[in-house]
Amino acid sequence: MCGIAGAYQGNSHQAVNKMVMQLKHRGPDGDGVMPTTKATLGHTRLAIVDVAGGHQPLQDGDAWIAFNGEIYNYMELRSKHLKDQQFSTRSDTETVLRLYQRFGPKSVEMLNGMFAFAVSWKDELFLARDPLGIKPLYYGKKDGGIHFASEVKALSLVTDDIQEFPAGYWFHSRGGWQQYYSVESTLQDEYPDMKSEEDALQAIRDSVQDAVQKRMMSDVPVGVSLSGGLDSSIIAMLASQDTPGIHSFVVGVEGGEDLEAAQLMADELGTQHHEYIYTEQEMLDVLPEVVYYLESFDPALVRSAIPNFMLARMASEHVKVMLTGEGADELYAGYSYLDRYDKADDLQEELVNITEALHNTNLQRGDRMSMAHGLEARVPFLDVDSVSMALSIPPEWKLQNDGRPAKNLLRRAYKGLLPDEIVYRPKMKFSKGAGSSDILAERAKEDVSDSDFKSEKERLKDGWDYDLQNKEALFYYQMLREHYRDEWIMPNMGSSRSL
Fold it and tell me: Is 2 one of the catalytic residues?
């Protein structure tokens, strides 16, 4: 996991170096900037795989790559497609570069993992982002050239033209843009061996276990986020089967519901459990820093980002990789607002929409809060095979009607494997379980005047067609404006539907 930056323009070493230095929190283990034929690539590294040999930008002949992410099937790809080649490192990055040299842009479709990367080969530039946008990438034009970086804060040093690189796309300097993935395109009308709800339960278990197993790949310690909710408990259980005594982490305010539930699961699994209890004042103290790293003022994101920030800070003292339960609510209809859907097709459309919207909502929050502390967050539920399977399940089996609770299929899949107190624990947003949501909303009401809210709501509506939701949103926006201009943030900011 790392940060990348670069420019497809002559004499850009100084500009790229500035961007790399702005991304040092993403990669405290090393950095590099390399001018190539027509591009300059920059990289700051968090060493996870091949710690000694994976320095970047990485070269093979006249080709160079700057890579952010993890490719979980890279050894399989080596043996299948590149067995005739000699490798100089054990890194997945070298595999990606050599696949690109052999297969061109089509190589992106072979990769199973999370990634954003740039390849400079001869006089061409190639950029790509993973299918769901787990890893971030932004780009912009300046003086006829293209600049790119992992975060807005870095790209804003060299250009005001900042756009999010779309998930599931690649760009080639000669061939232009190409979408190579969409959630809809992977779904099947009839999933193999899924003729009943009982079949679906086994498919869920098999899919999630395979996704977790892939994500245990690491040359450094791996831990798990354990809030005591269903999703994180499933991931923790499967990860602990691979690594007995794995480190687990939970945060919350005194009396927060997550703390007790997480301890229950930690005792059940025998994890090395770590808990951090924070105060209301500490939340308010870190809030400006959280908003700075998050690059968003969406209220639902900021609320959950605060406990995420605390969690990542604590976890980074013990591990460099952490698995989370992100994505299960989108795939298995876990949000309470989804109970409004009584037609299967309408529910399915919404699940696909919110899954495809993760790139600049929950995934942005997960990436920014973990990488603010040099911690890599992995999301097993959002493995592309897991997504395809989960959203190919007949949506009528996920409807929240006839007494069915949210995420009913997921609960049933792990009944008997997890304590009943966890299986039937109601869905709770991370900020609610950690105890942060009400505190922030009340503080915003105190600090933001009615007149300020009215004037800013009108200004943002006129200038950006953005509907400022409430005083809480303005409270966060005022902090964000201390570091970012509207034109950097507004075109790229997602909006959570679950608040």
Answer: yes
Strands annotated E in 180-318: 222-225, 247-253, 272-278
HSE-CB of 228 using CA atoms within 13 angstroms: 24
How does pLDDT run across 437-459, given as a tens digit for each residue? 678 888 899 999 999 999 999 99
**How confident is the model at residue 45, as a pLDDT?**
83
Q: Mind giving me the DSSP string for 416-460?
A: TTB-HHHHTPPP--HHHHTT-HHHHHHHHHHHS-HHHHHHHHHHH
Helices 280-294 and 299-315 pack at an angle, to 10 degrees, of 100
**Catalytically annotated residue among 2, 48, 338, 358:** 2
Report domain extents, the chain.
2-181, 187-492
Does the model's pTM come out above 0.85? yes
Q: Domain 2-181: what homologous superfamily? A: Aminohydrolase, N-terminal nucleophile (Ntn) domain (3.60.20.10)
Render pLDDT for 51-64 as a digit per residue (tens, 0 to 9). Answer: 666 688 999 999 99
Record: fold of 187-492: Rossmann fold (3.40.50)
